[in-house]
Amino acid sequence: xxxxxxxxxxxxxxxxxxxxxxxxxxxxxxxxxxxxxxxxxxxxxxxxxxxxxxxxxxxxxxxxxxxxxxxxxxxxxxxxxxxxxxxxxxxxxxxxxxxxxxxxxxxxxxxxxxxxxxxxxxxxxxxxxxxxxxxxxxxxxxxxxxxxxxxxxxxxxxxxxxxxxxxxxxxxxxxxxxxxxxxxxxxxxxxxxxxxxxxxxxxxxxxxxxxxxxxxxxxxxxxxxxxxxxxxxxxxxxxxxxxxxxxxxxxxxxxxxxxxxxxxxxxxxxxxxxxxxxxxxxxxxxxxxxxxxxxxxxxxxxxxxxxxxxxxxxxxxxxxxxxxxxxxxxxxxxxxxxxxxxxxxxxxxxxxxxxxxxxxxxxxxxxxxxxxxxxxxxxxxxxxxxxxxxxxxxxxxxxxxxxxxxxxxxxxxxxxxxxxxxxxxxxxxxxxxxxxxxxxxxxxxxxxxxxxxxxxxxxxxxxxxxxxxxxxx
Length: 473
What we know:
It is a single chain. Helix content is 23%, strand content 23%. With 473 residues, the chain is of the alpha+beta class. It is globular, with a radius of gyration of 22 Å. Belongs to the plant acyltransferase family.
């Protein structure tokens, strides 16, 4: 039985992702889709320390599709909103924790009387559903892509801008925004709570839905015994005080103030979206630079951004502030099994420019530092940073952060009824003042896309600096 509930959520125009002029995204209409089967009574999905390490961060994924051509290939066609929604019911049977809501464990009865901190978060698999957002844009896809190529940051309004909280039990873990362009094109934007999985986990989940929407048969239902698919609960331990900060870490930083149940990173700067495309020709030119042999595209593109941003921030922060950067390398999740492919198994480390200031360093030298960065599993980082449930921490943006998501678009393509997206962008939202950039293969493998969040005033200057550097490459 199809169940659809229309809901209304308040929010400022900025929170709803409204743009300007003909590029404005408007008419947001929200509804909810739930699994087609009842998960069960009191089924809980336990979050690991690596999951909770990322609770303040969000994955944003946008796929833009042109309207089908008049002479489209057989089977290639546009899908209606209803046709996009219907496969979500069996899809959510497969990934039922995504439809749940966050709760906190009750404190032990023998806890200190003055210790009233909330307990460890977990996901109650209560089938509350994912939120679907229908919106419209008065531009054509071609107009939108021209604007994106010129100034970047255009994907942000195509994915619903909402964080978890301040009431955990009302907050969806996933928003899916369907934006219709006036030419008949469409954008699919996903806002995914990082606490339930990293970028490859999210991409694999979205690609599974696209396969179902394209007519592929869903696997047999898995919910007859959902508890058999879930990881065991963590061992019991005395609850930690909420005031106890995590131990220091080179890649994790405590928030400036506790966030409670409103999972948004407090920052001293307004953080705004940034995106940039490095063409295949420009990437080849970078790889021909002296010293660049054997260094991958991620390192070269990130090094270019590192050097340019260090020069921009030198007057405000000084040279030392950008000497250390965080490096995140993604790994492909194991689909199925006890974690359902929902994991935060990427690796985290850092690179330090110990010689010349990054703004004056050679790009190939910075790329070599990034390539040699020592990274470790997110679980090990969480263990060294202290109990992730005991305090609020920032990973992305604790320092300037570069995320290697190179093959995620190719490994988990989102194709709908024979249609491939003209533009794909993965980014991380909810980042600290250091900013973060995700680097991945562009749609159809044409160069590299760089996307993320930077401080207000930086994106335009950085785009100009990157264009100059690539022109000289």
